[in-house]
Structure prediction request, 444 residues.
Amino acid sequence: MLIKNADIDGAIRDIRIADGVVTEIGASLPNEEAVIDADGCAVIRGLTDNHIHLCAYAAARDSLHLKQLSDISDAHLRVPIDQTLRVVDYHEDLHGRLDKHALDSLAPGRIVRVQHQSGRAWVLSSAALRDAGLVHETGVLIGEEGTDIPSRADSRPDLGRASQALACVGVTRLTDATPYRSLESASLLIDAVTMGAVRQSVSFTGGPEIAASLPPAFSQGPVKIVVGDHDLPSVELLVEAVSTARAHGRNVAFHCVTTTALALIVAAMRETGPSNFAHFDRIEHAAVVPNEYVDELKRLRLVVVTQPGFVHARGDRYLRSVDPVDLPFLYRCGALIAAGISVYGSSDAPYGPVDPWLAMRTAIDRRTATGAVVGKDESVSALSALRAYVNSPQEAWRDEVGPRVGDPGDLVILGESLQGSLSHLNSVSVRATAIGGDLVFSRD
Prediction:
């Protein structure tokens, strides 16, 4: 592939991609292959979603997004009874308490699976419990109870369609942050990536139980360690999990959404010390980072993989429910970057908005869906927001957003100049997406 007339960090150049890699960048390169004319518009490195749950995202695309409980009854009447009714976006503050008895009343005899907004709990109807071979008093499965729930083959989500939707917004690389406890439980993801249904390159995490395992089609990501609020681990257990990852040459990624979890992680990392590997250990989400922890994160060489999109999607609820003392420290970006901590962008989809351009805008304006502002001092520049999505903790940080010779052929052609795109940061700017030198999306 040859991309002609590309604006790369302010200079008009041609880009040649061969065998999946950028092999040449220069003026007026000879045409020897398929040509795309960028027409003087910007070409940037492909975006990375540094924390996504791909199978859950694919399933959510085909699920009922709950607005009110009557939606379940309505869907029950519209959808054939032999089809599983999968429901997402449930939250008790918005919809009230649910259990299997309530679901049995809303959708009698139907297999209904309702996922909590956090992704850490499920509510199953009586029929759904029977389908999964489970016996449970309430049908409310929390944490490990809800992990790896058996499901019928006809409910397997289409990861290929999910991959294409991500390509349409310029996402070319993913880190799947699901803490799989076995390769068998990750088989749907492994099969889709191995067979090429997922076009993006995918880094695999998995939990400490499979730290020694890496499916062949994946690049190696950090080992995921969940510091769950419903069942906080001891410092000793965290140290053991980090040591297991280190023994297999891997970094770690801590799930962290409360100050208590952050305190436990910092205590454990003080014992283990910073990683000596090429890449850094990660704090996933870093939902609340009070000032007293900022210098410690830097000293321990921890990077932050956060989701500014949550400020947009859930910020109005945060303003009502979060302790006012914590509000300035939610999903921080600006202060962390100013302190010299690398901050990377991600979606946490399906639990957060999947559109990286929405998240970038939110990192700048810090506005909720209704326009309120959360953590105004955490605002970053448009270029800093974009850098957080073209970079990944698995590689050296780069300030420029354009490609270099030797980079993967994962590129996004914008429909305007870089400055034009930075002025509004919208997915409509994505004119085409190439992965490994193959054109996987084009508006033309």
Remarks:
- The radius of gyration is 22 Å.
- The chain has a mean pLDDT of 94.
- The chain has two domains: 47-56+157-399, 63-154.
- Residues 259-272 form the longest helix (14 residues).
